[in-house]
Amino acid sequence: MPDRNRNQSEERVKFCIEGEFCANCSAKMERALSVTEGIGETTINYAMKTVFLPPGMVGQAQAIIEKIEPGVKLVAAKEKKSVNSPAKVQYRIEGEFCPNCSAKMEQALSATEGIGETTINYAMKTVFLPPAMMSKAQEIMERIEPGVKLVPMEKKAVKNNVHSEEEEAKETRQKLLKILVAGIFLAIGLIFGSRWHNTSLEVLEYLVFLLAYGLVGYEVLGKAFRNILRGSVFDENFLMSIATLGAIAIHELPEAVGVMLFYAVGEYFEDRAVNRSRRSIQAVLNIRPDYANLVNGLDVNKVDPEDVHIGQQILIRPGEKVPLDGEIVHGSSYVDTSALTGESVPRSVKVGDGVLAGMINTSGVITVRVTREFADSSVQKILDLVENASARKAKTEKFITTFARYYTPAVVVIALGIALIPPLFMGGDFREWLYRAMTILVISCPCALVISVPLGYFGGIGGASRHGILVKGANYLEALTSVKTVIFDKTGTLTQGVFEVNKIETSKHYTEEQLLEIAATAEVHSSHPIAKSIRDKWGKAIDSASITHYEEISGKGIRSEFKGKVVLAGKKDLLLQNSIEVPELKTKGVGTQVYIAVDGEYAGLLIISDRSKEGAKETVAQLNQAGIATVMLTGDQHNVAEAVAEQLGIQEYHGDLLPEDKVTWLENYQQKLKGKGKVVFVGDGINDAPVLIRADIGVAMGGLGSDAAIEAADVVLMEDRPDKLVSAMDIARFTKKVIWQNIGFALIIKLGFIVLGMLGVASMWEAVFADVGVALLAILNATRVRRYTRLEKAAALPSL
């Protein structure tokens, strides 16, 4: 396995696989490539849609995968642009459109040359597109949903957002007015219709009902007609139009008006629920500062954060958001970091400390020197990450999109069969069977399924960000529900990386104070954290002039001369290599052992330990209780790894590892699972970048202000708290639970009403109530995800 990976990195090139293909086809392509001479054993990363191939075999590989899945393309990874690449611009989609049409537009855009794979964020009504393809995209989208418009998103869009909200409120009032007027006409028709029927006033019956029908149905009829002209038949507008016009044809006027009216009522409440959910998610992400107080000589000017440059100074008053990343040059205060970390405890800051955009100054006035442009600030990276996370879809989301594509045509075929077969071949009453078919058409819209899944995942990602957990995509959120093994790095992840001398053992020739002085002086020039801990323990000034010779021996320790004596300080091997006899010691101390020798004789040792992080032991215990294997990989000595693992309750550990050894061990654990679970690696996001990238889910801890952590990992825990990993898994499980509740509930109701409609038990009224109701309940249920707070109680994960 290690050899193969080395070949992949040295002799192979990374390719992205563009186009839609399922996990099953991915496995087929992987098998076909692996048995091809010249390619050999190959792994397709289905989640990332990538594969490593020999450059000379790309043409043959393209032919192989296209034979299995027509339309997919291999593109060199460096040529492929990410969703939020500078080559693409974010656009807002203005106008009304349903989730089913959103999926259709997304599919059409992704299949268009020059645009490529694209995701429409239905919750936020945004999409990333190449600017040069904007006109083409507008044409495609308008063909599917007339009236929608693409508008470039601007960073300085606060006023535009207010205007958009006012327009939205105005449209909502107009819809409500139409519904109320139509409802009044329907009530009049129901009261007087039976009296007018089959009389000279029958025209009034038709007039009242058709006025009501036209008020709430003309938009639906118009869209259906335009879509038919464009060749798009199977959408909810067509279904509702056919069902209600059929009802009018058989003189079921109240049914026709009632179905269209309650469909409009359902659309009204759905729009309100989705808009409320959208605003809630936007509120979660509303950490972007609106202005900065730029210090210009003796003046302070209020400017946009994007107009401030590196090196300039800004003034931040109590209650104001920190607008840009920088360093405090004057004043002290407490800052609220909850918007970034989810932790509400104020943090003390003073001159020399760094502050990040998105924090809130809670007390004193501080002056900050800007160290990053706004576009590169931590808050902007977080906003981009969360807003664009929907580009990476979960398997569940892809399944529902595909299911909806076939579900509606299938139901229409069933309805057509019910309308024609019994009257033609079984002597049934045509009017009765046509009514049953129309009842089925009413329930056949897949909106409840299509809308609730992405809304649920987006809510989960937004809710996680409230707690200082950044998840880069719905696929990673879903993967967190299938974790079987969690691998931890030790230093900086489970332990604080703050070393302290906790035990001193001396030979009979030295006291503890003498040995500590010798060790501290010998280590005076070393920058290693262990050396610093020895000097801190000594706590007195050290005369570096007393060191006449100093030499660092890589990976072993230090040789120096102190007061005319040769001092060795480091690993036991250093002393043994210099023919110094080291006695066998039965020390009970836990930590790194620094052996000291003076003039060729053993003098003693220092035991230096690293403090465990708060919550590390509880986190490991919860993972173990849930049946998840816990592993620790570290470059520390085997005995140190053993002691830490025993202290924290970790099931397996491996010490004395180099970075490449960690990758090998990670792959071994992945092989053990054979694809039947996910392996998580938790590290600091900087030194562990290769392992984070190779893991099924890479989790970087302590990502606040760390670009390396945000870039390398799939999940970023903004605070240095191991228990946030359990919180992330908890949110993921709850999100998946809610989503499958929606899927199950919607399918049961819809399939149930199809059967009831076939049997003639359900009426069109009941069908429209069911269709609207299930969509509304699915939306409301999905919004529970962003409000989920049970994770704060540190409840144990459910057993696997």
TrEMBL record:
GO MF, any single term: metal ion binding
Keyword hit for Disulfide bond: no
Membrane topology recorded in Swiss-Prot or TrEMBL: Multi-pass membrane protein
PROSITE patterns hit by this protein: ATPASE_E1_E2
Keyword Cell membrane among UniProt keywords: yes
Database matches in InterPro entries: ATPase_P-typ_cyto_dom_N, ATPase_P-typ_P_site, ATPase_P-typ_TM_dom_sf, ATPase_P-typ_transduc_dom_A_sf, ATPase_P-type_domA, Cation_Transport_ATPase_IB, HAD-like_sf, HAD_sf
This protein's name: Cd(2+)-exporting ATPase
